[in-house]
């Protein structure tokens, strides 16, 4: 009877703590991913390009977006730009920094929730909350959640696909829906960024078949592949359907682009990025070994310790969640290390696996570590305190530090000054300054190579030109038949190394030099 009377009070107390934890989580999501998301200008070329692409879809329609000089965007499939255009349309047709960054912020939040749900469902509240907290506060993951790049959206699709596969393997009933979800989200990943989605997800799916599950220590690897890969996940059939539908989608894009899409997308941005060429900077195979620990701070020291302990004890001592996260991280790490062209952002789809492994490792220590097992409310308060620390840190970073960089990186002011000088077509030489081009607006064009520039300047077809700072000193030498007049400049002392210096000039051919001289001197 005493226990019966005490139970409602205990439940009420726990519920209050859960409400407190939920409120802290919502506050954390806001400050980590959404606070002042649109206050800074486009600092990334990818963001400005996405804004131009979305504007072209809204204004001109069609399948492929276009940048301001009229060229079709064929580097990637158009799915991400469709997302940005849809958000802009829902917001009244305005494409700005919020429209470009909102897909990343939403994808980051959804990925954190999904990883937390997986941990909670199979290992309990501590694993779920810790997995989500680790992922949300890994410094590079948080920052990319605030930048308009498609890597975060790709991470969300791949995470959904792998989570569905894990749920299909762990659930005896209702697995058919999870199997379908595995390949639907994988297909969306291919539609978003191409074959890299398959290259990242398939090794993890194979690893899931081989090392995740209680039966792994009691059967051969062939039996595991057959039981899990063929019978449960339907890997051969599912991958065949994904490849078939992807081929149809890409063939359609090839047809719409009049035979150019494959050359640009598959030839350059797949083959050359994988094997490397003179135009793309290659990195050593160990690039991610020193880059990832920096990007996964502040959790990378604890992750290294957990990896050491788990490998020392052997995979058989790890739970299914830990093994799944470890396979996820190691498989993607290996695949991307073999690729010639590397960026820190490309490893982003491996972050959920690292968070899942580390969260599962912490959850397994609950009975061993006194401060975790003593009181459930104790570790919940620790989680709330951690969230508050990170929220306050990001609030200070966004509201205090980033505004100091804005004058050196924003392109609205230079574009306004340039458009006060002329409304004619502006040409960009040997550069793709997409943020400046976006704010200048049409008409703009691009020209590459000194010979092409000299010929167009001689004919008078190029009058206003934006030149990178490093090329400006050679401009008069390379164009002896033109008068070069500097109209506006933004040099190194203004950019402080945070953006590219440039000079805006007016080119006047020989046959107009005398008339210009007469006008300017009054003779």
Structure in words:
The chain is mainly α and 523 residues long. It has 2 domains: 35-374, no CATH class; 412-521, D-Maltodextrin-Binding Protein, domain 2 (3-Layer(aba) Sandwich). 68% of the residues lie in helices and 6% in strands. It has 25 helices and 5 strands. It has a 5-stranded mixed β-sheet with strand order 2-1-3-5-4. It is globular and about 80 Å long. It starts with a helix and ends with a helix.
Helix content: 55-70%
Shape, per Cα inertia axes: globular
Strand residue content: 5-15%
How many domains? 2
Write down the overall mean pLDDT.
81
What's the SSE pattern? HHHHHHHHHHHHHHHHHHHEHEHEHHEHEH
User: Sheet with the most strands?
Assistant: 5 strands, mixed
What are the main properties of this structure?
2 domains; disordered C terminus; single chain; 5 strands; 25 helices; 523 residues; 5-stranded mixed beta sheet; mainly alpha; D-Maltodextrin-Binding Protein, domain 2
Brief overview, please?
The chain is mostly helical. Helices cover 68% and strands 6% of the residues.
Secondary-structure blueprint of this entry?
Elements (H helix, E strand, L loop, with lengths): L1 H33 L10 H16 L18 H12 L6 H27 L1 H13 L1 H6 L5 H21 L4 H19 L2 H16 L9 H12 L2 H22 L4 H15 L11 H9 L4 H14 L6 H19 L12 H14 L5 H4 L2 H34 L2 H10 L4 E4 L4 H7 L3 E4 L2 H10 L4 E5 H4 L2 H4 L3 E9 L1 H4 L6 E8 H12 L2
Parallel strand pairs: 1-2, 1-3
Antiparallel strand pairs: 3-5, 4-5
